[in-house]
């Protein structure tokens, strides 16, 4: 075994270690998802509660609040309504209509009033159902603000946006908004029937366990291959040399008499 073999073995061991760490990371993500699923199940089963009691005085919707059923009463401000583009519900592209609901104390919450499927290649809905006048009571699911990294998709421009983000909408619309929003389950007066509702959350463990198994298998395969080829090299090094082959540096056989005679005459 030479330096080159040791270098290759080191690389294989490093790769195997990386595979093990990736497998452990997938198991960690599985644990996080299981914990999040438990919170979601508990929130879905909770009774409808006033929004202020769920979220608290900081007005920030956190992961622990996601999918709770909240009740809020206020008046829609249709002048600051936003059409959210590039949405997809049940594999159908379309738009979501988000309207601020202003409460008696002056604070407001974004309400996702519903989904409008796209008709043909339209870039905006042909018509948006009007908001009810007067006080409206909305019962809906609490959702966290959507964030898109360094993109500006959460800032409304010309009445449209790509994401629903309370702080960014508040800064653009001049409203004191909750950091989060509601999706309508029930509304009084009733919501326009042109709106489609939203599916519930996906509560499953995802592919993390099987991804972890794959990474552990790759690690085992790498170590197993290293052991196999190492044994092959050791076995070859212990095999005796073939006696039929001349040793390196040995003198060549003497020429036959006839060949020697020819060589002398030449």
UniProtKB/TrEMBL annotation:
The keyword Cell membrane applies. It is a multi-pass membrane protein. Residues 234-266 are annotated as: Disordered. Keywords: Cell membrane, Membrane, Transmembrane, Transmembrane helix. It is found in: Cell membrane; Membrane. Pfam families: SURF1. Belongs to the SURF1 family. This is SURF1-like protein. The lineage of its organism: Bacteria, Bacillati, Actinomycetota, Actinomycetes, Propionibacteriales.
């Amino acid at each position: 075994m030479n330096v080159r073999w040791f270098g290759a073995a080191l690389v294989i061991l490093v790769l195997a270690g990386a595979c093990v760490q990736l497998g452990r990371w997938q198991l960690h993500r599985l644990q996080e998802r299981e914990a999040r699923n438990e919170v979601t199940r508990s929130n879905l089963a909770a009774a409808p509660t006033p929004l202020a009691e769920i979220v608290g005085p900081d007005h920030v919707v956190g992961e622990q609040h996601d999918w709770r059923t909240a009740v809020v009463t206020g008046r829609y401000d249709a002048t600051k309504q936003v059409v959210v583009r590039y949405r997809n519900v049940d594999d159908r592209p379309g738009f979501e209509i988000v309207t601020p609901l202003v409460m008696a104390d002056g604070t407001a919450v974004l309400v996702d009033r519903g989904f409008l499927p796209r008709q043909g290649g339209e870039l905006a809905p042909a018509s948006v159902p009007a908001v009810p006048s007067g006080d409206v009571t909305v019962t809906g699911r609490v959702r966290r603000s959507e964030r898109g990294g360094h993109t500006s998709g959460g800032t409304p421009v010309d009445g449209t946006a790509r994401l629903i983000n309370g702080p960014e909408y508040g800064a653009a619309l001049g409203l004191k908004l909750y950091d989060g929003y509601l999706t309508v389950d029930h509304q009084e007066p009733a919501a326009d029937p042109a709106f489609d509702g939203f599916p519930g959350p996906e509560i499953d463990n995802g592919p993390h366990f099987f991804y972890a198994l794959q990474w552990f298998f790759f690690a085992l395969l790498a170590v197993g291959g290293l052991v196999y080829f190492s044994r092959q090299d050791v076995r070859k090094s212990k095999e005796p040399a073939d006696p039929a082959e001349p040793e390196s540096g040995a003198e060549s056989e003497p020429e036959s008499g006839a060949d020697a005679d020819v060589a002398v005459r030449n």
